[in-house]
Write the structure tokens for this entry.
Amino acid sequence: MKQFAGLLRALVEAEVDFVIIGGVAGALNGAARATFDLDIVYSRQRDNLGRLANALAPLHPYLRGAPPNLPFRLDVATLARGLNFTLVTDIGSLDILGEVTGGGTYEQLLPRSRETDVFGVRCRFLDIETLITVKRAAGRPKDFEAIAELETIRDLQRSHAEG
């Protein structure tokens, strides 16, 4: 979890507009499943691309799984030409997504997110209902396993709110 703290701090301090999705969002919604990377959906606005590139530059981002000699530079031009990047950094793995299947872009996800303090910084994460929808749309076996836990948490939250 320490790597998540450093990654989130770098993004928040650079004023990057993003929403946490994936396993960390699951944990923030009460799930107990372990996750090994931080997944975010980021705003594609040009000024935000600059803030994102600047925030990550000191962490030496590189394409996860790419050969070590492959030329890669995460800058505004790269971000503008691409959409989704799976990265490894000096402090942990980070997936930066311009949009996510089943949820859309940062602007579409923003109203379906919640804000909290995590690791000493304030940031946004997907609400449980949207996280379930996104995981269902991804359709991976590990997502279906997570959905069962998330639905149980959601149902317990509803019953406590009603009772």
Notes: The longest strand covers residues 37-42. The longest helix spans residues 141-162.
